[in-house]
Amino acid sequence: MFVFVCGGCGAELTAPLSQVALPVHAHQKYGNGTQLPVLMESGTFAVDPEPWGPPWRGWEEVHPDEAAARGLHAPVRAVSDGASGATVIAPGDAHGTVLIPENRGGGNCCGLDGSAGPNVACAACALPVASRIDDCSLWQAMWLAPSAVRRLRVDGTDAVPRSWAELMAEGEGTPPFEPLAAWGSRLRAGHWSNHWWSWSPQWEAAAGRALAHLLAASEGRPVAVPDGLAAEVFRRPLDAMLPAGPPTRRAVLAGPGRPAPDAEADILLVPVHPQTGEVWAPADPTAYPVPLPFGVWLWLVLPGTDPPVPTSGVLPDGVLRDDFDPPAPRPRHLFRADPETFRRTLARLPDVRSPWLRAILDNLTQHIQAGYF
What number is the average pLDDT over the span 224-239? Predict the structure, then answer.
């Protein structure tokens, strides 16, 4: 475990934290006016290996050689000239910090979005050390500036990451849909005003990344995915963006505790270790691995129980109590992958240089309008 200290005066800025993989939805912007929860679990941190944050440059300002050196093979909306290696934590795990009143502006709507640079300073020496994010439609987080903080190991706290078998035994899957709230709404006892059931933003981001890999793995041919929830997530956009007819490439779910994929599987939908970021690989890796967050993958493999719907009041006389809450209502619209996660992922895959795949990226707006994203 580690604590983060101010690079200027050495004051401690965080509680002891353990490192986990960066969530795929870390930079997701979801909907309009949506109130998203905290990005990181308390007691954890993650590091973004890529630059993120201001200053930004438009794609037209980036030389092709620089873009290639940064792993960009197709246009993106903007390129960050911020430092790489920013650390993200739960805001509640920070201490010894204060907001910078004059730097609360930027492109924010209902809260802080960090677009104007660090808005949090060390309370001891006033050095700007972090960006607090709590605006609507953004995941709440505290991003520590890599140039302003240092990471120190806490003695006697070394821990071995959980094994795949331990993760499977814990069975912590991510439900595919959940109640979301409008900004500023509050949950009162038994009353869900301004709340609605939606596909999980985490699932939409995970699908955006996975869909980019599925298209790259398709080689421009149709892709067959497993029936059930995987089909509900991936089949519509794959059928729309890939040609019909044989020969078809076959995608299957593979991972710890699963039977070995058969020789006819061309693509494997596999989990990413939530602590190390390691992508699970079979003993004989001949198929293309498509990464999914462990919680999403586990729900596809072992669907869990729908989250219960909160209720209030008492049962009428003569009505016996049931041991089960009513199942959660299904979202009203078909599943849609997150378009910006898809765009960022596909632009970083060398396969996007193929004309047919580049055309999909260039026509992303039309696919969004058609309801696939």
Answer: 96
- 26: which residues sit within 8 A by CB, 6+ positions away? 39, 46, 48, 88, 139, 141
Going by the DSSP 8-state scheme, the letter that residue 350 receives in this structure is G
pLDDT classification of 157: cutoffs 50, 70, 90: confident
Q: Where do the DSSP E strands lie in the chain?
A: 2-6, 18-19, 34-35, 44-48, 56-58, 78-80, 86-89, 97-99, 120-122, 128-133, 141-144, 149-153, 177-182, 195-199, 223-224, 249-253, 267-272, 288-293
Q: Which positions ≥6 away from 1 have C-beta within 8 Å?
A: 16, 17, 18, 153, 154, 157, 159
For residue 127, count other CB atoms closer than 10 A to its CB: 16
3-class secondary-structure state, position 138: strand
Q: Give all strands (DSSP E) within 91-169, no chain letters.
A: 97-99, 120-122, 128-133, 141-144, 149-153
Contact 122, 103 (CB under 8 A): no
- Listed as own residue / partner, the contacts of 97-104 with beta carbons closer than 8 Å and 24 or more positions apart are 97/13, 97/121, 97/122, 97/123, 97/129, 97/130, 98/123, 99/132, 100/128, 103/128
The residues facing 272 across adjacent strands are: 279, 293
Contact 160/117 with Cβ under 8 angstroms?
Answer: no
Task: Give yes or no for a contact between 296 and 276, defined as CB atoms under 8 angstroms apart.
Answer: no
Tokens at 241, concatenated: 């963006």
Confidence of residue 160 (pLDDT cuts 50, 70, 90): confident
Mean per-residue pLDDT for 175-201? 76
CB 309 within 8 A of CB 327: yes
Q: How do residues 84-106 score in pLDDT, each as one tens digit? A: 999 999 999 999 999 998 876 66
Other C-beta atoms within 10 Å of 191: how many? 10
Whether 161 and 277 have beta carbons less than 8 Å apart is answered as: no
Beta-bridge partners for 219: none
What's the confidence (pLDDT) of residue 225? 96
- Rounded mean pLDDT of the chain? 89
* Residue 318 vs residue 143, higher pLDDT: 143
Residue 29 has pLDDT above 80, yes or no: yes
Contact 253, 269 (CB under 8 A): yes
